[in-house]
Design brief:
The chain is built from 25 helices and eight strands. By secondary structure, the protein is α/β, with parallel strands linked by helices. Helix 4 crosses helix 7 and helix 5 runs antiparallel to helix 7. The structure holds iron/sulfur cluster (SF4) (2 copies). One iron/sulfur cluster binds next to helix 4 and helix 6.
Length: 409
């Protein structure tokens, strides 16, 4: 694609980065076939190629409008288009740049600004856990849309005794929304790791990975969270006190693995973030070399499951084959279903900011999954798990919870 960047963009870091990405696009349109929003809406402007073109126009000096912003908002940032693109267009990086440029130039209506502020404050507030528990108490009387957002409580079980006794130690994420929504996922992760001789710790002064702020028009606040996490984790990793940051929510894992990119123009943290990258592991990556040990300790087989690979696992981190291999090695009877490459519509806070599209994608996903009549639907991201559970009676859980149950149940 030929570009003619505006003067204000030509000599900036992000302008050069965007230009390089844009020039790789050859307009072939292969990405349209795998874009969920194009599949549903059928509008070129809600396709990857259309969004790329709109971002190019902004970089070339056109004034974006509220309509431009809506087309970018409707993108799930699933990056399915990146997996499909034969030219290696890094759409995810481009849409981040495009969204920032547009939000700098277009003021959202007051209700959208308010919703974004409330979501950011609420989800990262220390009171979120309490409010979520209150939501559970009043869940039976809530309207169906809100009810679907609140996962039913499930017992978290005990924590391992003295996890510090193990020679091998890893870090897990602290102050994430996941423990408030489904604490059973972190507890199960700690018990499974404990069973194979790995202790778990949480670093002081670490917090949310930054994804919530980043995707709600607060990219600089997100970068501050990234810097804080780099500061909290790197000394523990480089001094050998822990060997990895193990992440059991692929949305957080995908974001953390992008820290080096998001901080690339920071004179201090670019290099520090790059040093962190080799230590960041999805729970599947960390457990893969220990699969035989885990399997040998299982008291029963995990059973008939449909595995929904979140976009942040398959398209962001490229870990779908590794995870499916691991689950098969662990004895999961995985049921294949159609359109497993498509987003379930969860996409972080997308299910709140774009409820109609989100529910439509969820129902399409569940319809495809239900053809296999699974006993359980397993996944690897808390957002997808809660979102899918809102539309089905079939239990939806993290696969690590199923492994834990097979080990200890
Ligand atoms: S598949 Fe890649 S090169 Fe083709 S239109 Fe989409 S982004 Fe551009
Ligand atoms: S990230 Fe997903 S929703 Fe956005 S353009 Fe690409 S395929 Fe479509």
């Amino acid at each position: 694609m030929q570009t003619q960047l505006a003067d204000w963009a030509r000599d900036t870091d992000v302008g050069r980065e965007a230009d390089e990405i844009l020039r790789r696009c050859v307009h072939c349109g292969f990405c349209l076939a795998t874009c969920p929003t194009y599949q549903i809406l059928g509008d070129e402007l809600d396709s990857p190629r259309g969004r790329i073109y709109q971002i190019k126009q902004v970089l070339e000096g056109a004034q974006p409008t509220y309509v431009t912003q809506q087309h970018l908002d409707r993108c799930l940032t699933c990056r399915n288009c990146e997996t499909t693109c034969p030219s290696g267009v890094e759409y995810g990086k481009l849409v981040d740049i495009g969204r920032q440029l547009v939000s700098d130039r277009v003021e959202r209506p007051w209700n959208q600004r308010l919703l974004r502020v409330v979501l950011r404050r609420l989800l990262m507030s220390p009171a979120f856990g309490t409010l979520y528990r209150i939501g559970r108490w009043v869940r039976p009387v809530l309207p169906a849309m809100l009810k679907a957002k609140i996962a039913a409580a499930r017992p978290a079980g005990p924590l391992p005794d003295q996890p510090g006794r193990h020679a091998r130690q890893v870090l897990m994420l602290a102050n994430c929304v996941q423990p408030a929504m489904l604490p059973s996922i972190d507890f199960a992760t700690q018990r499974v790791l404990d069973a194979v001789g790995v202790g778990t710790r949480f670093a002081a002064r670490s917090g949310c990975c930054g994804a919530i702020n980043f995707h709600l028009d607060a990219q600089e606040a997100a970068r501050d969270q990234m810097r804080a996490n780099v500061d909290a984790w790197l000394p523990l990793l480089e001094s050998g006190q822990v060997e990895a940051v193990v992440v059991n929510a692929s949305g957080c894992g995908g974001m953390i693995k992008d820290y080096a990119h998001h901080l690339q123009y920071d004179p201090v943290y670019a290099e520090r973030a790059a040093r962190l990258m080799p230590y960041v592991k999805d729970i599947a990556e960390f457990l893969a070399p220990l699969a035989a040990d885990v399997r040998a300790k299982m008291r029963r087989a995990p059973g008939r499951c449909a595995f929904h690979p979140p976009c942040t696992l398959q398209h962001w981190q490229g870990l779908r084959p590794l995870t499916e291999r691991l689950l098969t090695e662990l004895g999961f009877d995985l049921q294949a279903f159609g359109e497993s490459h498509l987003c379930c519509g969860s996409a972080g806070t997308y299910s709140i900011t774009q409820p109609a599209l989100s529910v439509s994608l969820r129902d399409r996903k569940l319809q495809a999954i239900q053809t296999t009549l699974p006993d359980t639907i397993v996944s690897s991201n808390v957002g997808c798990i809660c979102h899918l559970q809102g539309g089905t009676q079939t239990p939806v859980r993290h696969w690590i919870e199923t492994v834990d149950e097979a080990l200890h149940g």
